Structure formats: C-alpha cells, structure tokens
Amino acid sequence: MSGLTLVTLPIGNTGDITIRALDVLRSGIHFYAEDTRVFKDLLRSLGIDYSQKFIDSYHDQSIGKIDSIIQKIKEGEDVFLVSDAGSPIISDPAFPLVKRVTEEGIKLNSLSGISSVIIALELSALPPHPFHFWGFMPRTRGEKIENLKKLKLIQGTHLYFESPHRIFETIETFFEINPDQTLVVARELTKTFQTVTRLDKNNLNEVKTLIKDKGEFVILFHQDVVKNQIYPDELVELVNDYISSGGGTKKLSKIFSKISGEDAKSLYDRLNRSDK
Q1: Residue-range domain boundaries for the chain
Q2: Nearest to 161 by CA among 96, 86, 61, 62
Q3: How far are the Cα atoms of 33, 49, 177 from residue 43, in angstroms, in the given order?
Q4: 225 and 154 in contact (C-beta within 8 Å)?
Q5: How high is the pLDDT of residue 100?
Q6: What average pLDDT does the segment 175-186 reach?
Q7: For the segment 240-253, what is each residue's pLDDT rounded down to a tens digit?
Q8: Of 272, 266, 268, the residue nearest 252 (C-alpha)
Q9: 162 neighbors 136 (Cβ within 8 angstroms)
Q10: pTM
C-alpha cells in the first residue's frame, strides 16, 4: 500500500544516518524536501545518484502542494518527506500534511533517527522526567518574559530552540526572571564544534566568552514547582476575602506579589476591577 514516510536525517554528522533511512534514500523515487539544494548535497555526500528521482520542495509556504501530494499517493506512489536536518515534524512544516494524510486514511510511516532535543537532554545533566519541548523561544523580549513566568508553574525540564541572532538576549531575559537558576546552552550538536555550557549567576558575566553566537542552539532549564503552589486566581479570591473584612488593597497586593511572582500593580488592578 502506498503512503507517506517521514524520514529523519542527520543534524550535522552524516555518520548518524540510520540504515533504514539510507535504504529509502537509495531506493525511493518521490521526495519532498524543505530545501532541495540541501537535500541533494546530502545525497551527493552519501554517494547516492538522484538523477532519476523526483525531488520537489515542501516548506512552510507549501500548503498549496498538499492536494497534489495526496493525489500522488492515491495513484499508488510512495512519497518520502525530509527536512534539512532531523525530523520533518519537529519545528518543521510536516504537520499540515501529516494531519491531512491521516484524515484521508492514507498509510503514514516514520523512519526515526537522531534528535537534537534528546541529545541536549542527555548532555544537560538536568532531570529528564518530565521534560517539555516548546519549539522556538518567542521572538520579542515581552513574549519571552511572559512565557518564562508561566513556566514557573510547570514542573520539569524545559527545552527550546533558539536562533544565534537572539541567543544573548534570551540568556539575559532568562536570568532576569530566574536569577538563581542554571541555564544549559547546547550549540552545534553532533558537529565538530559542539559545546554544552552551563550558565548561572557565577559565570553569567563571561557569557560572550563562553558562547559564540553562531550555529544552532538548544537551551534547557529545570523548574521545580513548590507543592501547594498558590495560583494568581486563587490569590484574588483570598485577597477579596481579606478586603471584605476590612483589609487594604494596595498593601495586600504587594504581599501576595511576593508569593505569586505576579506584578503587584497587575494584582492591584485586578482586585479593583473585581470590586466593581
């Protein structure tokens, strides 16, 4: 039965390719790649002749190709989807196609392989259970701050991809929100210049010496959540009860800001709104 196969490729070292992936790269005919030039370079490096293969692009702007890919499979062709590196579904554009394939009742297969997320977790020396992968870190500083504050309520090790253009800003923002934590920065995993750096308040001043802002990054940190954590909405309920019995809004907002980590002014505004 024909179908769609997701093929995981090496993330930097061609020696990491699996035997099963190598077999389909040699025998397969119909390929869709995030960047056809990168894919052809890989085939050449593996000594694979692609002159008789059909190789087309499939990336974030390729939603319009889904119908034709589905039709090709229904006509009996096996289709293989690859990204530039790693899995085509992790922070890459495979999901809309995968969703449509399953909706159509088409066979879906995966030839799994190396993952920068798992390698980073292995090398981080952070607790591995549970772990949460969130894709790329939000772009703006404000979004980063909001995101990092929300994670204070989620137990586990958290992983993000980050761009070399934003890595130093992200590190700075992280320690603004989490001054006493450790941040692990993994760079160029499986490649010649692979590095794993553990940052904390003791070596933060040396960050630009310790880390080069080139290549691909995975950042990780572990969050412990205190048992019986008080959530902001629960605080509002408690504070309202206190006020109803004669307490002052401004002073209590400051007190509970220390407990929840939420901005005192935001708590004060919310309490005033709930009073009306």
Answers
A1: 3-111, 116-223, 232-275
A2: 86
A3: 12, 7, 45
A4: yes
A5: 96
A6: 95
A7: 777 776 777 777 77
A8: 268
A9: yes
A10: 0.78
How many Cα atoms are found within 13 Å in the side-chain-facing hemisphere of 72?
A: 16
Residues contacting 187, CB < 8 A, separation 6+: 193, 194, 195, 196, 197, 211, 212, 215, 216, 217
Residue ranges in 29-94 assigned as alpha helix (H): 36-45, 66-74
Query: Which residues, 6 or more positions from 168, have their beta carbon under 8 angstroms from its beta carbon?
Result: 207, 208, 211, 213
| Amino acid identity, position 208 | K
With bands split at pLDDT 50, 70 and 90, how would you rate the model's confidence at 230? low
Helix or strand holding residue 263 (H, E) = none
- Please state which CATH number belongs to domain 3-111: 3.40.1010.10
Task: Look over the chain and give the mean of its residue pLDDT values, rounded to a whole number.
Answer: 90
Tokens 């056809």 identify what position? 36
- Assign residue 173 a region: left if phi > 0, alpha if psi is -120 to 50, beta otherwise? alpha
More confidently predicted of 60 and 26: 26
Query: What CA–CA distance (Å, rounded) separates 232 from 234?
Result: 5
| Domain topology for 116-223 | 3.30.950
pLDDT at 227 over 60: no
Condensed to tens digits (0 to 9), the pLDDT of residues 163-173 reads: 999 999 999 99
Q: Which two tokens stand for residue 42?
A: 């890989």
For 30-42, write each residue's pLDDT tens digit.
999 999 999 999 9
Beta pairing partners, 156? 223
169: CB partners within 8 A, 6+ apart: 141, 144
